[in-house]
């Protein structure tokens, strides 16, 4: 996790390159995903792996009363705190802490429960092994109130594995590059720890990520009292939500490129 923390401590978004419309589309997807669960009153919102706090601005359109952010990258957390200060309508804080640790779980278990836990573009780092993945999901469950929602975005396992089967260990384009450690999973191999080196131009540079198998995540969440509500590839947001919210799509300067099929959203509900 040290490599991930170092990367996100120094990462700042660029706003003048060819990737901007793609990143805007991903923000459109997150905006719609967040809107789907922020439908109550005085919502308590946990930003699990909050990074720079890039989603804080999206919350002002919803009845979110309290925000709390956690991330392993301390410098990024400092920028999230600055964003909170720039949004006085939103009470809260952000702290540097490994969200996938037992320490984090103990802290969350002692806090008042949250209505929403959001983990954007980060959950895949927990799937290096079963212990870390299980601890991460347990922490989410400890944080969530009964009836609360766990939402997030991750690389789509079906897209990754199909691409590897058809194209080999290495594939990509001007937008992204993937290099798997293994040509294919051995028969009977664990669904955890299937590593690949990933670059997403302007955002991620040669970081090690891990495939999140849908069946594994669903089973871990089920064991922690959370049931799957929805699982959607990013392409469906272009096909459906763009037509339902055309003004938002245009206002955000979003554009769909095939590389966005690499990602999926998920939504779980705690029983």
Q: What features would you describe in this structure?
A:
The chain is of the alpha/beta class. About 35% of the residues lie in helices and about 30% in strands. The chain contains nine helices and eleven strands. It has helices spanning about 1-10, 20-35, 75-85, 100-110, 130-145, 155-165, 215-225, 235-245, 245-250, and strands at about 45-50, 65-70, 90-95, 115-120, 145-155, 170, 175-180, 195-200, 205-210, 225-235, 265-270. A seven-stranded mixed beta sheet has the order 3-2-1-4-5-11-10, with helices on both faces. It has a four-stranded antiparallel beta sheet with strand order 6-7-8-9. A hairpin with a 3-residue loop joins strand 8 (about 195-200) and strand 9 (about 205-210). The protein starts with a helix and ends with a strand.
The Rg value, from CA coordinates, equals 18 Å
Instruction: Compute the number of helices.
Output: 9
Which of globular, elongated, flat, extended, rod-shaped describes the shape? globular
What is the number of E strands?
11
The biggest beta sheet reads: 7 strands, mixed
Low-confidence stretches: none
Strand order within the widest sheet?
3-2-1-4-5-11-10
Order of helices and strands: HHEEHEHEHEHEEEEHEHHE
Distance between the termini: 31 Å
- Mean of residue pLDDT values: 93
Strand content: 25-35%
In helices, the fraction of residues equals: 25-40%
Estimated structural class: alpha/beta
What's the layout of helices and strands?
Blueprint: H1 2-10, H2 20-37, E1 43-48, E2 64-71, H3 74-85, E3 91-96, H4 102-109, E4 114-120, H5 130-143, E5 144-155, H6 157-167, E6 170-172, E7 176-180, E8 195-200, E9 204-210, H7 214-223, E10 226-233, H8 234-244, H9 246-251, E11 263-270
Parallel strand pairs: 1-2, 1-4, 2-3, 4-5
Antiparallel strand pairs: 5-11, 6-7, 7-8, 8-9, 10-11
